[in-house]
Amino acid sequence: MPTKTFDVIVVGTGAGGGTAMKLLCEAGLSVCAINSGPRTEPAKDYKLHRQVYDLKYRGYGNPMRLEGKPHQEPYSVEESEYSEASDIFEHDVAYSNAPGTDWYWKRCKGTGGKANFWGRSSARFGDIDFKAADLDGFGENWPVDYAEIAPWFSKAERYMGVASTVQNRPSNPDGEYLPPMPWRCIDYIIQKGAEKLGVPYLPDRCAQLTVAHNGHPACHYCGNCTRGCDVGSFFSPTWFTIPEAEATKNLTLLTNALVRSVIVDETGMAKGVAYVDRKTRREIEVYAKVVVLAASCVETAHIMLNSKSRHWPTGIANSSGQLGRNLCEHLYGSPGYGYLPQLLGQPATPDNIADSTVAWMPRWQNLKNPHEEKFVRGYSVYMGGGCGEFPGHYNQIEGFGSEYKRAIKRYYPTPVGALIQAPTLPSPTNYVDIDPEKKDIFGIPQLRFHFQWNANELMMWEHSKQVMIDLFKAMGGEMWGADDEPNRPGTSLHETGVCRFGSDAETSVTNKWAQAHDVPNLYICDASIFPSSTDKTTTMPIIAFTMRTCDNMLSNFKKGVHQRT
Ligand SMILES: Cc1cc2nc3c(=O)[nH]c(=O)nc-3n(C[C@H](O)[C@H](O)[C@H](O)COP(=O)(O)OP(=O)(O)OC[C@H]3O[C@@H](n4cnc5c(N)ncnc54)[C@H](O)[C@@H]3O)c2cc1C
Ligand code: SF4
Fold it and tell me: Alpha-carbon distance 160 to 19, whole Å?
């Protein structure tokens, strides 16, 4: 049982926590990082470079693998036969959905978290996002502006390595980029079609190394990213921040340690955390001068809501009542998919082997005027397809036997599909709280989701379907169809909002430095502080804001606001 008091405890070792522990260790602080699951070990856990026909269950995994687990729902894409033996996905800690809610909460509990398997899209937010409430009157502004955050985006991009181009788009500030990912054949055809509609089609900002960077090798385009990279050619904590933190010798890393709450001293300030050792099921306390929560958005709120004491009867640092509220998400779904007949019968030369968001349609709606469309704000679209390792169009073609195989081959280079990324607005009916009745197998009260799609994002969904009909026509494509419904909420993994930051302690959980208003030695380093969702993804901004938060915390240590042990 550890008795030492650390300078800082960091809960979570993902994009946010990994960055925090690296920076704090490098500054000479003693850091205890606590991670819910085991250590992720690429050599053992990633079974890349194998064809699905070399795997017993053809990549789908043992159908009985979740038997007896409290949370039996399989996760898509990232959890597959390629990683199934490694116990790095969360199926022991159950959660609940309020009636009418169907939240899909995918969690990677191995060290490094979800960024071991992420999609790597890494665009900057801009003032169009930070000041959106001023522009259209909905929600709250962020307590920062672009000029203040831009240097941190640069630091994050320079550290991670992000491939893209300078584009001068009003909704997408440009950054500091490695050479862009090579385009697929389909990208040139889509771009021509999109041009006719006035829709931008440009290289995405992708945290995948097109050249060697900061000691990490260039990508060798094996296309296995979503199963974890075995050489570290895209940013992940496993290959970047965790080894760098460990190299300082200032890190104590506790694994299989599920934090249940932040514990407080007699004045209500954070004193440490209580965690359950998964192997022994014993509850253990560990102490520090400062606590950083980076357990990933809704799990950070879960820990805080479960941190009840006489000082904090509704959860730690919740005098505003905003803890758990303002849950935002990206609406995902395919508004259109089909094929490009002009490519039928072309040789099946693999051109989509990077498995990345090579190109996208950055937000083009409501740019000149925030109320041009029926909806406010705007969405972006990623286009998938091309000649990949696996024929994603297998379920679009009817047939059997050799005739079916011939059709698969004929269509191999042609498929194209869209994925919309539409932000939700904060809504009083979208939030998380603690289920008053249900506990998980470790005795921890479960997190409960309350979430519905609202009219604004559903209008974007309908809008994107019409855009796809027009685009397929403009690029000479044939549509096979579109999703009837958006994907389940939670699918995007870009949830935000449940510990929002702001200047007013009465309406926000933390200040602009992600330091809890009520408990100044408690910081948050994940997307829970972002008050709203944008048309961009969250991970690079999580890293940039974490860098800024740690910088501020270190200056608080220097000024004596926080004492060292
Ligand atoms: C397939 C896929 C594609 C994605 N594509 C993109 C993309 O293109 N662009 C993008 O920006 N983002 C993308 N994401 C999302 C991205 O991965 C996340 O935004 C990011 O990893 C979140 O980092 P985090 O540190 O906040 O949380 P996580 O990565 O979830 O890390 C949380 C850490 O906290 C630990 N933890 C959790 N609960 C506890 C607890 N109670 N006690 C102790 N430890 C705890 C976990 O073990 C984990 O290590 C994608 C994710 C996936 C899986
Ligand atoms: S395509 Fe590149 S980044 Fe992805 S797994 Fe292969 S080497 Fe790694």
Answer: 11
Atom of ligand 2 nearest to the CA of 224: 5
Distance CA 87, CA 45 (A): 9
3-state secondary structure 408-438: HHHHCCCEEEEEEEEECCCCCCCEEEEEEEE
Ligand nearest to the CA of 125: 1
Ligand 1: centre distance to CA 494 (Å):
9
Cβ–Cβ < 8 Å for 492, 363: no
Top mutation candidate among 114, 299, 491 for ligand 1, by most atoms within 8 Å of CB: 114
* Alpha-carbon separation of residue 19 from 15, 26, 396, 398, 430 (angstroms): 6, 11, 42, 48, 29
Residue nearest to atom 3 of ligand 2 (CA): 233
| Each residue's pLDDT tens digit, 64-100 | 888 888 888 888 767 878 877 678 999 999 999 999 9
Return d(Cα 319, Cα 314) in angstroms, integer. Answer: 8
Q: 283: which residues sit within 8 A by CB, 6+ positions away?
A: 260, 274, 275, 276, 277
Using CA atoms, how far apart are residues 509 and 406, in angstroms rounded to an integer? Answer: 58
> Does any ligand 1 atom lie closer than 6 A to the CB of residue 301?
no
Joined tokens for residue 97: 């959905």
pTM metric for this prediction: 0.97
> On the CB side of 405, how many CA atoms lie within 13 Å of its CA?
2
- The conformational region for residue 221 under phi > 0 = left, psi -120 to 50 = alpha, else beta, is left
Q: What is the 240 CA–ligand 2 centroid distance (Å)?
A: 15
Distance 229 CA to ligand 2 centre (A): 5
Helices (H), 295-400: 297-305
- CA-based nearest residue to 298, from 462, 129, 492, 128: 492
Q: What is the predicted pLDDT for the residue at 77?
A: 65
Q: What is the pLDDT of residue 355?
A: 67
Going from the Cα of 223 to the center of ligand 2, the distance in angstroms, rounded, reads: 6
- The residues, ordered by sequence, that sit 6+ positions from 40 with a Cβ below 8 Å of its Cβ are 86, 88, 110, 111, 112, 116, 228, 238
Q: How far apart are CA 538 and CA 496, in angstroms?
A: 8
Q: Could you give the dihedral angle defined by the CA atoms of residues 404, 410, 411 and 414, in that order, rounded to the nearest 10 degrees? A: 170
Q: Alpha helix locations (H) across 51-141?
A: 127-130, 132-136
**Positions in the chain whose pLDDT score sits under 50:** none
User: Which ligand lies nearest to the CA atom of residue 307 in the structure?
Assistant: 1
Ligand 2 in contact with 181 (CB < 6 A)? no
* Pocket probe mutation, ligand 1, options 77, 86, 118, 292, max atoms within 8 Å of Cβ: 118
Around 32, how many Cα atoms within 13 Å sit in the side-chain half-sphere? Answer: 24
Which of the ligands is closest to the CA of residue 354? 2
Predicted local confidence at residue 354, as pLDDT: 65
